[in-house]
Amino acid sequence: MNSSKTLPSDARFQWALSIGVVTALVMALVALMRQTPAVPPDNSVPVEDPVRKAPATPFVAQPRPFRLQTMQVTLLPGQSTEILAAMQPDDTVVFLWVSIGGAVNVDMHGDGAPYEGDPGSYHKGRHEDQGYGSFKAPFEGSHGWHWTNPNERPVTIGVTLSGFFDDLYSIDPETEEPPSHDENPPKLCCYQPEDGDPLRT
To answer: pTM score, two decimals?
Structure first.
């Protein structure tokens, strides 16, 4: 005769359930203690308590006046152009560009990074007819767009930039220099990209 004693099935179930409940309570208490900040004996609130901190003001003063500038350029089939904004670090703008007559290929990028290597493109797109958004300059330099017309008909691109920046200008692809600022500034430049240009197609 077997002398070992076994609990009935209902008793085993109740015992396992009790163990599970106790374990769950212990785990919940440990998690709660980890998430709840310690309160000093005098009930003062710690300075680093994020719940008690005053929210940061959404107002940001700017050192120079607000600017609003627009440019427009017409591209023949296969032609490209580049329009850039001269900006200081943390300058912020809101932009809108629209292509009338057909979608274009676009590369939004920055020039003049104070570190080695190409900072790369902020956005590349194909067959887009508009773009809009906000932009905050990561460094002092020129930030803007390069467009190519892949269509078999001319397109007209208009750009509007508002916010805080130094200037909005085009780049001559032959000299890679901005046009001179005189009473009769040259028209926005265009050029014929080579067959290997990835924005051509």
So the answer is: 0.60
Find out whether 73 and 156 touch, Cβ atoms under 8 Å: yes
- Quote the tokens at residue 168: 């909005």
**In this structure, are 129 and 163 located in the same domain?**
yes
Q: Which pLDDT tens digit goes with each residue over 72-98? A: 999 999 999 999 999 999 999 999 999
Same domain flag for 24 and 78: no
Range of the domain at 29: 9-52
Does 164 lie in the same domain as 114?
yes
Predicted confidence at residue 30, as pLDDT, reads: 47
Write out pLDDT tens, residues 94-118.
999 999 999 999 999 988 777 666 6
Distance of alpha carbon 145 from alpha carbon 108, whole angstroms: 4
**Location of structure tokens 């130094």:** 166
Whether 110 maps to a domain, the answer reads yes
**3-state DSSP: the chain helix, strand, coil percent, rounded to 5?**
15, 35, 50
Verify that 157 and 96 share a domain, yes or no. yes
Rounded CA separation 37/17 (Å): 32
Cβ pair 169, 82 in contact under 8 A: no
Residues 161 and 106 in one domain: yes
Total Cβ atoms within 10 A of residue 195: 6
